Amino acid sequence: MTTEDISFTDFIASSIHDMKNSLNIQVHGLETIADACRARADTETLAGLGPIIHQAHRMNANLIQLLSLYKLGKSIYPMDIAEQSVADVIAETLLHNRSVMEFKGITMEVDCDEGCYWYFDRDLVTGILLNALNNAYNYTTDKIRIAAHIEGGFLQLRVEDNGRGYPDAMLQSDGVAANKGVNFSSGSTGLGFYFSSRVAQMHKNGARQGSLTIENGGAYGGGCFVVRLP
Amino acid sequence: MTFSLPQANTLIIDDFQGMRTMLRDFVRLMGVTRIDTASNGKEAISQLSANKYDIVICDYNLGPGANGQQVLEEAKLRNFVGVSTIWVMVTAEKTTDMVMGAAEVKPDDYLLKPINQVLLQSRLEKLIARKQSLGAIEAAIRAQDYSAAIHQCDQLLGARAVNPQEILRIKSDLLLTLEDYAAARALFESVLALRNVAWAKTGLGKVLFYSQDYAGAVQLFQQVLEENRMYMEASDWLAKTLDAMGNSAQAQQVLQDAVQLSPNSPIRQKALGDTAYRNGALDVAQAAFEKTIKISEFSPHKNPAVYARLARVFSDKDSPEEALNILKRSKTDFRYDSAAALQTAAAESLVYQKMGQVEKAEAAMLDAERLMEKLADKVSPEMAMEVATSLFKLGKKDKACGLLRDLVKNNHEDAELSRQIGAVFEGENMAEEGQTLIKASRNEVIDINNQGVMLAKQGDFQQAVKLLRTAAQQLPHSEVISVNLCGLLIGLMQQKGKTEDLVLETRELLGRVREMNPVNKKYHAYALALARLANDH
Questions:
Q1: With CB atoms 3.0 to 4.6 Å apart as the test, which of A55, B44, B217, B336 could cross-link to B38 if both were Cys?
Q2: CA-derived radius of gyration, chain A
Q3: What is the dihedral of CA B401, B407, B410, B412, to 10 degrees?
Q4: Which long-range contacts (CB under 8 A, 24 or more apart) does B410-416 make?
Q5: Which CATH superfamily is domain B144-241 in?
Q6: Whole-angstrom Cα distance, residue B333 to residue B327?
């Protein structure tokens, strides 16, 4: 095979494919170990496993975001805006993260009508929710709430926690746009915000466009991550 | 048809041992006991041919050889998986063919890695429920009873089923198949009134295409692509419409842009090759045909016509050696396929003629003609046109014209085919002669039909049947002649009483009509009338 036969896109895709396999098996292995710990009531090891699995989830979220952004940037992402059951999409996102939330003793609450349907790209919006949950996991005390409502021709998706909320500086300076530098203490590169905001904007209906905002308050008075899709 | 998860006979296809084990553990934890595994496409196909599976969990990326999509296509084409089989693609990223491919080659669902057991279980349970709710529609489609399928759709829509858009989408496809363009248009417009969705806008474009409002169709397809240029279906239809408008240069450009974005569809690559070849863009045609052969190596779309076309391209480029090489390859790759042999022989004749080796050219043509006789019904219009082209090159103009004349007569209402036949004549610098021949052949068939109708109106069914019977013998592939003869036979029996022979003749004819076109509009009415006659004592 000559080098020109392999395009860079294929190369990235197959590398990410490979990394995702590894990650999948890694998480599965860790969860199997966790089950064994539970069986023999080894709470100490069990407590140590939660954060490790959480890191694996973050890595996965980053991979999804990088690959999607790469493809969106080259306009080769197969954007598939179709009618989706919002409750189903939220439920599946939670199934991704359930074990991690359990480790940390976080209570999850969902506020979404079963009959709520909306138009969006299922995988991209799942990516946004996974990122928001990974963030909330870091900042929450013990509660996270996902709420979905249709309001004024927009689907509003809110991920709220009961932590201290976003710092003033982020809120004032339009944190989403400003948070581009790497912050090693929080582990934030701004990738998640950039991805979520980009994806929200890719959702259009007529003249209206999706958006991402952050605020403090919500049902628990903590940080709120709000995506609006037309 | 319905089953619960633990009873499901399950196949897991993954090239990676670790993933295979993990997926097997997952389904085991769901209580599934019958689990087989395969590590590549070849193994998977052999398992699928030997067993009937309820659930197939397949990795998209299977290493060298076929990928998951190609395994799915082959399994569907060879009927290894039925309508009730749930096929889930597990993948690191979604691809266009997974979400935007044609319905018959799309998996039921895809799951992005990483996955865990609860996620997989939740998805499988939902898919089982969905299969159950759509089961009746799918069974009717499988039985080609499209009216019944539409009825099922309406029932589900009336019962406010889950995901009405999906059902509307299925219904719209059915309406297009049944050529009920007014109803299809109404459906698409009602969806678009609520929201601008790509599938409905593309659907409306198709309605305009079939109503021959090509300019309107082009505008809609272009709008869809402006909003989402990865919506390949719109791009394929745009190319098709431009071609129908005679704007093949722009059609070629659209296809070239499309294969840049989504290069791995053999059907699209072949369309590009064909269009470019017609435009005389030999380099583009060569690249497209070569790519088609490469990406369909492990696919059921592997097609001998592409080898024959590529040989023609090489021959036109004065590279006869390469042309013969590719034909040699076709002979090995399609060893036991007479249709392939026919196309190879026709192309060979052309190449030898160009090389000045007249004897070899004649011999190859003799082969082709022999194969055509042997294949009879199975000679597609495409093949016939290729043989005709080679005949022209050999200087056998009369034979070529005869072949094309028969082709027009057997399909006299098919405007697209007439256009293609016109293009064959153009290629021989006989555009005018071709148009005359096409027109005359069409009129001949129309005249016979009109005469039949006239005689029937005068009450002389006997003469009308006699006339159409002769025509049907000469034009066994003409759907219109066959179906009209059916109508006349029924009229004759209603007038003069039935005989066993006439009932049998009508029944056989109706069977042929259905084979030629499962959605022939008169078929059902005639079948019903015949059944009434047959049961009447």
A1: B44
A2: 18
A3: -90
A4: B410/B475, B410/B476, B410/B477, B410/B478, B411/B381, B411/B477, B411/B478, B411/B479, B412/B441, B412/B442, B412/B445, B412/B446, B412/B478, B412/B480, B413/B479, B413/B480, B416/B244
A5: Tetratricopeptide repeat domain (1.25.40.10)
A6: 10
- Tell which CATH architecture fits domain B449-535: Alpha Horseshoe (1.25)
Q: Do residues B8 and B34 touch, judged by C-beta distance below 8 A?
A: yes
| CB-based contact A146:A86 (threshold 8 Å) | no
Write the ipTM. 0.87
- Two domains, one topology: B5-131 and B144-241: no
Q: Which residue ranges make up each domain of chain B?
A: 5-131, 144-241, 449-535
What confidence tens digit (pLDDT) does each residue in B312-350 have? Answer: 999 999 999 999 999 999 999 998 899 999 999 999 999
- 3-state secondary structure (DSSP) of residue B127: helix
Q: Among partner residues A67, A205, A206, which is closest to B93 by beta-carbon distance?
A: A67
Q: Which residues pair with A151 in a beta bridge?
A: A154
List of chain B residues whose C-beta atoms are within 8 Å of the C-beta of residue A21: 16, 18-19, 92, 113
Edge-to-edge strand list for the sheet holding A211-217: A107-111, A143-151, A154-161, A222-229, A211-217
Residue A145, φ and ψ in degrees, nearest 5: -130, 135
Give all domains of chain A, ordered by start, each with its CATH number: 3-229 (3.30.565.10)
Residue A76 DSSP code: -
Its pTM stands at 0.85
Question: Which tens digits make up the pLDDT trace of B384-393?
Answer: 999 999 999 9
Q: Quick check: A160 and A223 in contact, CB under 8 A? A: yes
Q: Does B93 sit within 8 Å of A14, measured CB to CB?
A: no
Q: Which positions in chain B touch A80 (Cβ < 8 Å)?
A: 94, 99-100
Tell me if A71 sits within 8 A of B95, measured CB to CB.
no
Of B115, B126, B229, the CB nearest to A24: B115
Q: Provide the CATH topology of domain B5-131.
A: Rossmann fold (3.40.50)
For B443-482, the pLDDT digits (tens) are 999 999 999 999 999 999 999 999 999 999 888 889 999 9
Greatest Cα pair distance in chain A: 59
In angstroms and rounded to an integer, the radius of gyration of the C-alpha atoms of chain B is: 26
Closest to B506 measured CA to CA, from B477, B475, B484:
B484
- Residue A25 in contact with partner chain B when CB distance is under 8 A: yes
